[in-house]
Amino acid sequence: MSNRLKSATSPYLLQHADNPVDWWPWSDEAFDEARRRDVPVLLSVGYAACHWCHVMAHESFEDPATAAVVNDNVVAIKVDREERPDVDAVYMAATQAMNRGQGGWPMTVFMTPDGEPFFAATYFPRAQFTQLVTAVGETWRQNKDRVKGESERIAATLAEQAAAWTGLGTGAGDLPLAELTSEAVAGLQEEFDPVNGGFGAAPKFPPSMVLEFLLRHYARAGSAEALSMAGQTCEAMARGGMYDQLGGGFARYSVDATWTVPHFEKMLYDNALLARVYTHLWRRTGSALARRVAEETCEFMLRDLRTAEGGFAASLDADSDGEEGAYYAWTPAELRVVLGDEDAAFAAEVFGVTQAGTFEDGKSVLQRRAEPSDQERFDRIRGTLLTAREGRTRPGRDDKVVAAWNGMAIAALAEAGLLFNRPDLVNAARDAALLLDSLHVFPGGSAREGAVRIVRTSRHGVAGTSAGLLEDYASVAAALLVLYGVTGEDRWVPVAAALLDTVLTSFRDGSGGFYDTADDGEQLIFRPADPTDGPTPSGAFAAADALLSYAALTGFERHRDAAVAALRVLAPLASRAPRFAGSGLSVAEALLSGPAEIAIVGPGDDPRTADLQRAALHRAPPGAVMATGPGSPSGEADVPVPLLAGRGLVKGGPTAYVCRQFTCQAPVTTPAELRETLGRIAETLRGET
Question: Is 642 exposed, middle or buried (0-12, 13-18, 19+ CB in 10 A)?
């Protein structure tokens, strides 16, 4: 049996390289083989940090007898959903359609050699899986025409449903953005859990994009309800077991409604998005908890996810030694061994470690429901426990670099680094941007000079083969614009511009929206174009965010118009499904706020310039952009960003200009004056509400 996965850049595929299942990577050759053998295709989709993916692998894919059944009846294809989210999206739509809206990973799909699905589900125990594969093989041999007819019908229905997103909400007239955002807040209040924070019932996922929207809505409209929902949810997540109370960083989700027991995998995207949310909560409220969590989460990313090349790894596994949560959970006896009786009793009280346990086998997930009575003692104990935990078997790390998720990390680290005066965080953001620019972004894609493409993943300094999706272009472009504003390094602006040029030329759907894949990308059974948020911002709303930011820096109406057009899907989403439109609602708040344009003119090595930058970001209205550089009183030719054109120093010192639609207020030279100017804008925005 040939080992076709051994050269993969996906750690998930490499985990399966030595299985007795005769796996193929997603490729034309795999489907050709299915046609040659005249057998169905088994598509198995998962990711490296997925607990139940590991369970199914151990039970079925590593079992020679089960593998023999698979090899005899189907051509088996293994896909990393993080490397090929387009494939995952298409067949997850099939899985959910066939299972009353339910789906998950591992995803198990049987389809024809033409890629049309006829059966889809998730995890199967070994006995059921073996029976299923056998039954699929027999059905194909005995009733192939009926199976193909049904699969063609399913594929056509899925394509029709996907096409319904394109052009949805288009039409003449202005968007009633203020009304839509207010409707969304009202809808979120109906789903809000006033006791435990968050939205809906268990399991609870971190609502990162919704939290960002609520903070922006509060900043613009002064909504106490929006701030209360955001603040309560952030505090509940940070005090529960979903947050790593020793090492910082968030797990993927909570299995219960109280944020007590997590599903222990840690994803880069969750932590990048939440680090930014907690940073923004701090700047709006001054919450000490928010700042602590923001900084600890950033430190977790640097400590546990940073790669040798300067990027950030995709995830940490939920399991270690084959046991979920073994790295993180504690018993009272384990505390006593590490700390001694007195400190163990103190730690058990603060962290909620009980004899009965809050997790499995009498173990407890550490919580921090209240602040400790003795902070110095707590800090010492926390450090001791963290050191002791390092002696345990660490969870596995998926060390591939995903472009979009690294973009999210760059934006979070750059902003936190500036606001908290942490040059180490800004430097880490810069290193990740350098990696993306040098390895992931490359020329090509059209005849236009300067056009670029982006590859989605890399590993160990080697670029993968999967084409970037809309979220990769948009998230990286947006991050580079944030990094430019923080560092004043104008090298990032043309890279962002080139990425957005590809967005506008290769991803538009012709009706104001966007597809998730490029027009010259691989043709699947339909072209995905879902504008709703998942665990990360939707590609369409991420594109709107990046386009609007670029327009604010440059004054280019083409980009602003494209951002506005992409928001038209908010009309049907804001009231019906606001939990899945948080990123789009955040862009709407930026539009309603201007967005504000802040030019900081001054030498990069002058501490007064950094003081103005920090004041600007601290008090910035929702979605504000910042340009930093030497300025050019004489005109545009000397600057890479038009926002700096015509701006110069006042009295020879660093100067800030605050503008909306390139109409600027009087320049100011001190942080206090800048805060006052931004405060007046906030008052004006609330008066317009």
Answer: middle
